[in-house]
Amino acid sequence: MAAFDAHSLPAHIEGRIYRRPTQAVILAGGRGTRMRPITDDRPKPMVPILGRPFLEYQIEQLRDQGFERVLILLGYLPDVVQNHFGDGRDWGVHIAYSVTDPDQLTSSRVATARHMIDPCFLLLYCDNYWPMQMSRLWARFRQAGKPALITVYSNSDRYSRGSALLDRDGHVRVFDRSRTTPGLQQVEISYAILTDLALALLPEQDTLLEEAIYTPLAQQGRLTAYCSDHRYYSVGSLNRLPATEAFMRREPTVILDRDGVLNRKPPTAQYVRNWDEWAWCPGALEALRLLHDRGYRTILASNQPGIGRGVMTAAGLEAVHDRMKREVAQAGGRIDAIYYCPHDWDDGCDCRKPKPGLLYQAQRDFHLDLTRTLFVGDDERDAAAAAAAGCAFRRVTDSCSLLDLTRQLLGTRAYA
């Protein structure tokens, strides 16, 4: 009997049945004026990031997420894209094109190519990259039962200007591309699952796709969202390029819990308050040395509720960490950053594991792709935080130490 695969289940939307899409449509026709002078001789999707066109990263992502066909909607300097990608065989997908006037707006580009578009498809813009996990988007789309889903960045760090408001169930209450509605919070980041029901709203006049479809769907209660705390990266403006390049370098990184992974875990409700109470786990220093020797960044993410409970002080914790880092350095390793939650068990913060807040703090500071980052912990809270953030997770046990896991990792580089 074949294994059950929930990710392949169809979605039932307003009396219609839709299968998980295998076609992606990329809007890539604009002039990219904010990227001049780079876009004087190439369209925006061909802006180089670490020597490769940005669009290559998107197409490789689509391929790796199970998409078989890509339709690129071009306008400005279309030959540059077509000559580079051809029919897509070198990237393991089939690529088709629709070319319209460079000054045509996005709703008209989609309307022109509508006969080439599947009843259910993934839409994205050519200038944003977010580490999509399509299985999660599809699960949300199926659960919501709406004819369209947009992906939004939670924007708790005010990274950009909000364009959407969600209700308590995660559906889009307001979508305002002009950003004039008071209180807008979330940022639409262009990864959307759309159906022919949504495209039925396309107008005859030339306008922006978001205003033509997302705004009325939100007003009708027919637009849902997948909300992510993982920052997105862009070639939409020149000032975003350094962060995008840092993200695309994909520097190998591991995130570690502390107690039970590096040092022997104190009993429940007890804490390492000073260095005299610290005891290294066997092999931990050697593991840190091996990671450093192989070019891995090592980041700690640890719950330290003893501070919130008044059992220890932040200064005492910093002193422990200073000594810890010195001994790591003496052993040939390196700790690149330490993130900890100081709150009590019941404070309701966003950083205490099993919530993933500490992992997202590290993501933003180091421009990590958490879907390519391994988190090593020792209990269920660590596993839950990793799952929420999309990280791979490995668990330290009595029979499998950090050193054992490190040797496995460096032998396969499966999570690099």
Question: Can you describe what's shown?
Answer:
- With 416 residues, this protein is of the alpha/beta class.
- The chain has two domains: 6-248, Spore Coat Polysaccharide Biosynthesis Protein SpsA, Chain A (Alpha-Beta Complex), CATH 3.90.550.10; 250-412, Rossmann fold (3-Layer(aba) Sandwich), CATH 3.40.50.1000.
- The protein is built from twelve helices and 20 strands.
- The strands form six sheets. It has a seven-stranded mixed beta sheet, sandwiched between helices.
- The protein starts with 10 loop residues before the first strand and ends with a helix.
Summarize this entry quickly:
The protein has 416 residues and is α/β, with parallel strands linked by helices. It is built from 12 helices and 20 strands. Helix content is 29%, strand content 22%.
Percent range for β-strand residues: 15-25%
Contiguous low-pLDDT stretches (5 residues minimum) are none
CATH architecture of the largest domain: Alpha-Beta Complex
Helix- and strand-based class? alpha/beta
Give the total of domains.
Answer: 2
Task: Report on the biggest sheet.
Answer: 7 strands, mixed
The number of helical elements comes to 12
CATH fold category name of the largest domain = Spore Coat Polysaccharide Biosynthesis Protein SpsA, Chain A
The name of the CATH superfamily of the largest domain reads Spore Coat Polysaccharide Biosynthesis Protein SpsA, Chain A
Q: Helix share of residues?
A: 25-40%
Mean pLDDT: 94
